[in-house]
Amino acid sequence: MQSIIFHIDVNSAYLSWTALEQLKKGAYQDLRQIPAIIGGDMEKRHGVVLAKSIPAKKYGIQTGEPVVNAFRKCPSLVMAAPDHTLYAQRSREFMSYLLQICPDIEQVSVDECYMDYTPVSENYTSPEICADMIRQNILKQFGFTVNIGISDRKVLAKMASDFKKPNLTHTLYLAEIEKKMWPLPVSSLYMCGKSSQEALKKLEILTIGDLAHSDPEILQSHMKSHGRLLWEYANGIDRSTVLSEPAKAKGIGNSITLAQDALTPDQARPALLSLAESVASRLRAKGQRAMMETIEIKYADFQTVSHQTSFPSPVDSDQIIYETACKLFDETWNRSPVRLLGIRTAKLVQTSEPVQLTLFDLTQPERFEKQHKLNEAIDTIRKKYGEKAIVRGSLLSKNNEFQKH
Prior knowledge:
5-stranded antiparallel β-sheet, 14 helices, 5-stranded mixed β-sheet, alpha+beta, globular
């Protein structure tokens, strides 16, 4: 049976959750019904629109733009400060409810997730009926709305959930892309940022259909691996699956908010190196190795994407995790400014378990052993004298430029 995947996305989550909290405390107006935004502190680099109401959208206000610009477009705009503690709580409640429907959930951000409908399909007449039930129950139980996209591909489910909002269910199966997706502008395609749009415009590619019918080799020559990725998405090609993991095996990860948006791979690599060292060190401290690595990228407009790969044998090496992160970054980055980077490892095994070395390790056993001893020595020094006792030279000038979470 072909897998059916839901992408479930809270409609303007930050604004909805703030509005509900204000109404609970006696507010006389609903932020969702008036031109309103959730915005940050101008003095702390967070002076951008984090979420907007539908009435605010009519003024051309966009998520990620400076708050001052939003007020120029709508002087009567109402702004509320973000409450991330509240959002985390609402997110936990939201995900807990969905897990009661189906255990195969892959949460990708505080307000969105993928669900593999296939294992529970026998409980419902159709995917659309199940999705509508979920939407109605969430509205009744929690007071906010969600959009649900349904497809046989993850990327198409994501695209479908971004169709007309709010509180709607949309399908976008592979057989439907010619009618529903190809007429849309390339700006509507998942992972197609502004710089990608400009590059495609120079190639006279204006719609997703144009992109789908273009030569992937030409796209790759102009836009590297990202060009081929966009071509695949335009054709509904996506081999990824819903990565649900048991709570006890969620893995080890870390993320970094950059002090300044990274505009090039070279600007991102020091953060990836620092993350790789941190994650690898934590793996070794827990006596574990990872069979899978995922990189997370959050852009300046707060769009979040992730990309993962599996290892041929379990790893706990700084260098391997770093090199893999760089490769995943190059394959995923859409040339937009990067605000946050994260590395997560999963499918963990105990270090005591036998390791099947790769062909490269077998042909260079001295390199494998040398790396293992180096990691042990670094961990011993850091444990005795502190995390900053040994710092890579490439990070010396970068230590104060990002903040770990």
